[in-house]
Every structure is written in C-alpha cells, then in structure tokens.
Amino acid sequence: MKKLMLAMALVTAVVIGAKAQVLYRISGNGLDKESYVIGTHHLAPVSFADSIAGLKEAFAETTQVYGEIDMADMMKPEKLMEMQKAMMLGDGKTLTTLLDEGQQAKLNIVLRNLMGADLTNPMVKSQLDALTPKALLMQLTMIMNLKSNPNFDISNSFDGYFQKLAQQEGKPVKGFETMEFQTETLYKGSTMERQTEQLICFCDNYDYMQNVTERLTKAYFAQDLKEIKNLVEEKLNTACDATEEENNRLIYDRNRNWLAMMPLIMRQTPTFFAVGAAHLVGDKGVLAGLRKAGYTVESVK
Predict the structure, then answer these.
(1) If we measure between CA atoms, which residue out of 252, 246, 260, 261 comes closest to residue 280?
(2) Given this model, what pLDDT does residue 117 score?
(3) Rounded distance, CA 128 to CA 118, Å?
(4) Nearby residues of 204 by Cβ (< 8 Å), 6 or more positions away
(5) Among candidates 195, 170, 212, which has minimal Cα distance to 62?
(6) What angle do CA 133, 109, 9 make, to 5 degrees?
C-alpha cells in the first residue's frame, strides 16, 4: 500500500517470501561466507527477537552489523540539534497560523484521540505549534504505533538491539546513511503545502490509519508475509497515497543505494544487515535486488 503510513517511513511492512520469515541468508555470487538481512519493525519490542528462527546463529556467524544508520552517531547532541531544527517551522511561523480553522478542527479531534488534549491546551500548543506538518505527522504516527505496541520500550528499539548487541560483542557497527541524509530525506523533502495535505489526510482517515497500524503490527508479529503484502498493495486512491516521487525518495532510491554498497561490504566480511522491512519487500526491494545481482537469498528456518 503506497499510502500515507508507509510513505512516512516510520510504519514498516515485512518482507515477501514463500514462508512467514523476516530473516534471510545471502550466499553465492563469489561470497566466501554468508551474510544475513533481517526486516525490522521499528517499534517491535526487543523480546520479539526470541521468536525469529535462526536469529542467534545468524548473528553469531557474522562479524559486523549494518543498519540504516549508526544509531550511536544519531544520538550525538549536535546531530539531534540539527534534526530538531529541521522539525521546526521557524521564521515565527506556527501550525495555528498555517492551518485554517477547518484543518485545525480536524487536527484537534485527532490530538484528543491520541493525547487527550488539543491545541486549545496551552501546554500542548507550546509543544506542537512550532512543528512542521511533516514533523507533527511523524509524531502522531509514532504515538498511534505506540498504542498498538504497548510492550514497546522507546529507549530500547528493535533496530537498536542489534547494534547494541554488536557493541557488547566487540563487533563494528556501521550505517548505510548519515544522520544528515535522513534528516534531509524525512523532513525537507516536500513542500509545506504537501506536508499540510498529508497531515490533513491522516486526520481525515484516522480510523483507517489506526486499523492499518493494528493490522501491520499483528501481521509482523505473526510474520504473516502474505497479509503484509496485501497491505502494501492497498491504496486509498486519493491524494493521501504517496506519489511515485515520494516512494522513490523514501524507499526505492535508498534501496538502490544500499544494493550498490552491499556487494563490497559482504565480500569484505560476513555482515548482519538490519533495516526497516519495507525496504526488503517487492520487485524494487532489497531481496529482489540481491537475487537479480546473482546472490542466493533464502529464508532462515
């Protein structure tokens, strides 16, 4: 589904395959040793790792971990400040001056549903009014996902788990992308008009988005790839669907960049790749790209 939730890149799907699996072995095409790639759900609890067949063995067989980004680098104060700056409207602008009365009314309904208060509350307004529509949308999406994943510890993410484990074992941790690249991609890639449109689309389709979030979460924990595939291909057939340009910028261009890097990485040392599972799915996904490049890619059972 090229819908808003997927386009925001904080809600992920899982990979498509013959079996319900999220962990894959990469071999052949001149590799001396096997590498592995796992599709993650950014808000899955760390305990879910115990449910993935062959995960401990795969991790033990590799000598470094690659994520979308090196999360330790992401947490550096100067990097966080740069991202925070990108999330702000600036120049004295606010959401309440950017949105008309009707749009504010729609947003307030969603805020009350998710937070129990809206922009008429001075504390809420002070926290949210300076955010860009994209930044607020991502925050609302996060809150919706947290409600769907009550066991999730925001300080101990599923993606970060593999990087922390690698550090504990003395394995190098690297990222495909820099914090600067992700900040530019996530927060600066669309006009203010488009950001506003997507925020209001989320408000207009709140019940649908909530239902999709719950179905995605349920499917991921069940490793039900067929159901996830159905969700990925579903559309609203409105302006709320991500455009081709948006999908390329947020998913497919990044897939191509990673696929260009992976051969050299894997030749140098067996690697455990952990990336958002939406990047693995479909004909333009990482799994299909690896197979087209001549690698054998098999689900780990």
Answers:
(1) 252
(2) 96
(3) 10
(4) 106, 240
(5) 170
(6) 40
